[in-house]
Design brief:
Layout lengths: L20 E7 L5 H16 L5 E9 L2 E8 L5 H15 L14 E5 L2 E3 L11 H15 L13 H31 L2 H8 L1 H16 L5 H30 L4 H32 L5 H16 L1 H28 L1
Antiparallel strand pairs: 1-3, 2-3, 2-4, 4-5
Helix pairs in contact: 1-2, 4-5, 4-7, 5-7, 5-10, 6-7, 6-9, 7-8, 7-9, 7-10, 8-9, 8-10
Length: 335
C-alpha cells in the first residue's frame, strides 16, 4: 500500500473571484509621500474617476512610489478596462511634474480621492458589538475631528451590522409565511393563533439563559432564536393536531386537552433532555469558533429546557380559546 503525504497543496479557485482591477505604479525617486500624493497620485485619481464602470479608486503614496488601483464592475472586460486606463493616463501625464525632494510622512493612503488613516485592533474577551458601541462613545467624547474629517467603523463589526439588518427583514417575512402555512394546514384561525402563541412562550427560556450567560444579542444568538421559533411551532402543531384528533374520536374538550397533554409530556421531556445534552459541548467549548457556537447553543438550550412549561400552558390556552368560541356560538344561536 502506498501512502502519499502532502505538505503543501495549491488550489486554483474557479471561477476567478478576483475583482476587475487595474493597478498603476509610478516611481518618482526623491519625492516624499506628501509630494507623491499631491503631484502624482491625486492627478491620476482625478483622471481615473471619470472612467465608465469604475466602482472605486484606492491609492497608496510612499517614498518614491505611487500606487493607484482602479476597481471596475464585475461584468467589465479586463482588456477594455486596461485600455480605458491607458487612454486616461496619457492625459494625466501632462499634469505630473518631477524633480522635487523633501521630507514628510512615511505613508499616505487614499481611497475615492480622500485621505485615509486606518486604526485596527483585535477584540478579546468580549463581543464586537458592545466593544464598538463603547469605542464610538469614547471617540465621540474625546476625539474632536477638524472640519471635513469623519470616522467610519468597518471590519467584522460592519459585516455583523449588515447581517442583523438582513435578518430583521427576513424574520418578519418568515413568520408571516409560517402563519400562512399553519392556517392552510388547520384551516382554523383559532388553532393558528394558539400555535403562534407558543413562540413568545419559547422566548422566555432563551432570553433568560442569554441574560444569565452574559452574551449579547448577536447574529449567532438571533439564529438560535430562529431555531427555537421553529421548534416551538413544530411542537405546537403536533400538540394541537393530536388534541383535535382526540376530539374527533368523541372526547369532550377538557378530556381531550388533559389526555393530549399527558401523552405528549413524556415525548417532550425526553426530546428536550436529549437536545440539551447534545448541545453541552458547544456551550463549554473554548476553541476556534466558540464565539459563534456558545450564543447559539445557549439560546437553543434555553428554549428546550422550558418546553415542559409550554406543554402546560399551550393546552390551557387551547381550552380557553375553544370554550370561548363555543360560548359565542351558543350565544349566537340563542339570539
Amino acid at each position: 500500500m502506498e501512502i502519499l503525504a502532502l505538505r503543501r497543496l495549491n488550489v486554483d479557485a474557479f471561477p476567478d473571484v478576483t475583482p476587475v482591477q487595474v493597478e498603476i505604479d509610478t516611481e518618482a525617486q526623491g519625492l516624499a509621500p506628501e509630494e507623491i500624493e499631491r503631484q502624482i497620485t491625486f492627478p491620476i485619481e482625478n483622471e481615473m474617476n471619470g472612467i465608465s464602470g469604475v466602482t472605486r479608486v484606492e491609492s497608496l503614496s510612499k517614498f518614491g512610489l505611487s500606487v493607484v488601483v482602479v476597481y471596475f464592475n464585475d461584468d467589465t472586460d479586463i482588456y477594455f478596462a486596461r485600455q480605458q486606463v491607458f487612454e486616461r493616463l496619457s492625459s494625466a501625464k501632462d499634469h505630473i511634474p518631477s524633480g522635487f525632494q523633501s521630507s514628510g510622512d512615511s505613508v499616505v493612503s487614499r481611497e475615492n480621492s480622500l485621505r485615509r488613516a486606518v486604526v485596527m485592533c483585535n477584540v478579546k474577551g468580549r463581543d464586537i458589538g458592545s466593544f464598538v458601541h463603547d469605542a464610538q462613545q469614547a471617540v465621540a467624547l474625546q476625539v474632536k475631528t477638524p472640519p471635513g474629517y469623519f470616522v467610519t467603523w468597518g471590519g467584522q463589526f460592519e459585516n455583523e451590522q449588515q447581517a442583523v439588518r438582513r435578518l430583521l427583514i427576513a424574520i418578519p417575512i418568515a413568520l408571516l409565511l409560517v402563519f400562512v402555512l399553519i392556517y392552510s394546514c388547520f384551516n382554523s384561525l383559532r388553532n393558528t393563533l394558539t400555535i403562534i402563541f407558543n413562540i413568545p412562550i419559547a422566548l422566555v427560556g432563551s432570553t433568560t439563559f442569554l441574560l444569565i450567560s452574559g452574551f449579547p444579542l448577536s447574529v449567532p444568538a438571533i439564529v438560535g432564536f430562529i431555531a427555537v421559533f421553529g421548534i416551538a411551532v413544530q411542537n405546537g402543531m403536533v400538540m394541537v393536531s393530536f388534541i383535535n384528533k382526540l376530539r374527533s374520536r368523541g372526547y369532550d374538550l377538557h378530556e381531550a386537552v388533559i389526555t393530549g397533554a399527558s401523552v405528549r409530556l413524556r415525548a417532550e421531556l425526553l426530546s428536550a433532555l436529549i437536545g440539551s445534552i447534545s448541545l453541552i459541548p458547544f456551550i463549554i467549548s473554548s476553541g476556534t469558533g466558540a464565539e459563534i457556537e456558545k450564543p447559539l447553543a445557549i439560546v437553543v438550550v434555553g428554549g428546550l429546557v422550558t418546553r415542559p412549561i409550554k406543554i402546560v400552558i399551550l393546552p390551557m390556552v387551547y381550552e380557553w380559546v375553544e370554550r370561548g368560541a363555543t360560548r359565542r356560538a351558543k350565544a349566537a344561536l340563542e339570539t
